[in-house]
Amino acid sequence: MSVFVKLIAATPEADRVVAAAAKICYSPSGAAEIFDGLDTAKTASFLKMLREAGHLSPFEHASFTFAAEGLSRVATHQLVRHRMASYSQQSQRYVGMTGNDCIVPPTVKSDPRALALFREQTESAQRTYDELVALGIPKEDARFILPHGAETRIVLTMNARELHHFFALRLCRRAQWEIRELAREMLRAVRAAAPVLFAAAGPSCVTEGSCHEAHSCGQPYKDIEDMLSQ
Amino acid sequence: MSVFVKLIAATPEADRVVAAAAKICYSPSGAAEIFDGLDTAKTASFLKMLREAGHLSPFEHASFTFAAEGLSRVATHQLVRHRMASYSQQSQRYVGMTGNDCIVPPTVKSDPRALALFREQTESAQRTYDELVALGIPKEDARFILPHGAETRIVLTMNARELHHFFALRLCRRAQWEIRELAREMLRAVRAAAPVLFAAAGPSCVTEGSCHEAHSCGQPYKDIEDMLSQ
Amino acid sequence: MSVFVKLIAATPEADRVVAAAAKICYSPSGAAEIFDGLDTAKTASFLKMLREAGHLSPFEHASFTFAAEGLSRVATHQLVRHRMASYSQQSQRYVGMTGNDCIVPPTVKSDPRALALFREQTESAQRTYDELVALGIPKEDARFILPHGAETRIVLTMNARELHHFFALRLCRRAQWEIRELAREMLRAVRAAAPVLFAAAGPSCVTEGSCHEAHSCGQPYKDIEDMLSQ
Amino acid sequence: MSVFVKLIAATPEADRVVAAAAKICYSPSGAAEIFDGLDTAKTASFLKMLREAGHLSPFEHASFTFAAEGLSRVATHQLVRHRMASYSQQSQRYVGMTGNDCIVPPTVKSDPRALALFREQTESAQRTYDELVALGIPKEDARFILPHGAETRIVLTMNARELHHFFALRLCRRAQWEIRELAREMLRAVRAAAPVLFAAAGPSCVTEGSCHEAHSCGQPYKDIEDMLSQ
Question: Active site located where (chains A, B, C, D) (predicted)?
Answer without folding.
Answer: 170 (involved in ionization of n3 of dump, leading to its activation)
